Amino acid sequence: xxxxxxxxxxxxxxxxxxxxxxxxxxxxxxxxxxxxxxxxxxxxxxxxxxxxxxxxxxxxxxxxxxxxxxxxxxxxxxxxxxxxxxxxxxxxxxxxxxxxxxxxxxxxxxxxxxxxxxxxxxxxxxxxxxxxxxxxxxxxxxxxxxxxxxxxxxxxxxxxxxxxxxxxxxxxxxxxxxxxxxxxxxxxxxxxxxxxxxxxxxxxxxxxxxxxxxxxxxxxxxxxxxxxxxxxxxxxxxxxxxxxxxxxxxxxxxxxxxxxxxxxxxxxxxxxxxxxxxxxxxxxxxxxxxxxxxxxxxxxxxxxxxxxxxxxxxxxxxxxxxxxxxxxxxxxxxxxxxxxxxxxxxxxxxxxxxxxxxxxxxxxxxxxxxxxxxxxxxx
Length: 379
Ligand SMILES: *[C@@H]1O[C@H](CO)[C@@H](O)[C@H](O)[C@H]1NC(C)=O
Ligand SMILES: *[C@@H]1O[C@H](CO)[C@@H](O)[C@H](O)[C@H]1NC(C)=O
Ligand SMILES: *[C@@H]1O[C@H](CO)[C@@H](O)[C@H](O)[C@H]1NC(C)=O
Fold this sequence. Notes:
Blueprint: E1 7-11, H1 17-26, E2 38-42, H2 51-58, H3 89-97, E3 103-104, E4 119-121, H4 132-139, H5 150-164, H6 168-176, E5 178-182, H7 187-195, H8 200-224, E6 228-232, H9 241-246, H10 259-282, E7 287-291, H11 293-302, E8 311-315, E9 346-348, H12 356-373, E10 374-378
Parallel strand pairs: 2-4, 2-5, 3-4, 5-6, 6-7, 8-9
Antiparallel strand pairs: 1-10
Helix pairs in contact: 1-12, 3-12, 7-8, 8-10, 11-12
The protein binds 2-acetamido-2-deoxy-beta-D-glucopyranose (3 copies).
């Protein structure tokens, strides 16, 4: 493939707060128009734009809930394989960078109509950071999902690379001009562990292993030529209706969240940020932007009105119990064919994933971080 536009990424830590306002208010922003020529993303259902559907189709398995309305109702007005009423954070990122929504990587080779030079999405709903044989053998966690791990996603990327670029130097140039979005990943490893009653000490032992998976993947991609990474941390899992339903208990009175679970997310984020700092020191020429999902979304629970939210810990598409969540009823499968009247006043779409409204705030915060670190100078 040819890389038509090019830009230099300069590492400059400028105060560009006004740029954020520009993005939010006008939709025009300096990251668009050739700053990054492509985006490649990895992760789980928070980022999947069709891989689980493609995998289910190829294996003649039951289609995932994301294949059915009301998923997609707000923005696309049809199901688009996203577990959301509309756009995901990765969709808002693509829009801000002026590139099309990312296509699913699975089967992309065979879909001649797909133009994937501008990016591909390797995220698979249900993916874990660690592989399922390790989770089962070493921790006793049964992965009830697809069994796809982060290593599988990275391998798919390496398999597809020859379709994206033709020589080692061509690939390096492609990756140099690409934004790599690493996750979030690990959320399912922890969620399975908590839901399956694994003790806290064992679950905490998973954290450095998960962080190491992310870190090794960054090192590998740097070898291949990537220079700009966006690495999301864990969101506050103690505010998530699914885990709140599972662990009904003494919630924090001001946020409605479970503090002990949120502390776990913070523990993960602390180790992840330490590791990212190590990587920055080890590779002084690369940009690693930490996407602070935790602090950004905590603001929804502390001051919901500021963001237009009325319900923070209740699912919009769900039923039953104080959090409108029941793990045996997934949004999209009967009987959950309807959802709340106004999804934009809810933080949680289906009890596990955010609404488009929440994703939009999250994406804006992430883009603001990206702009602080990365400046593009066309030449
Ligand atoms: C699973 O992960 C472990 C630890 O990261 C690794 O040693 C093992 O080779 C992996 N197994 C498979 C089948 O990928
Ligand atoms: C994010 O939240 C944590 C925990 O509340 C806090 O320790 C940290 O200072 C916050 N970071 C930022 C950048 O706001
Ligand atoms: C959850 O849904 C299942 C299946 O529809 C139902 O049998 C069960 O009673 C529900 N549980 C709760 C707590 O509402």
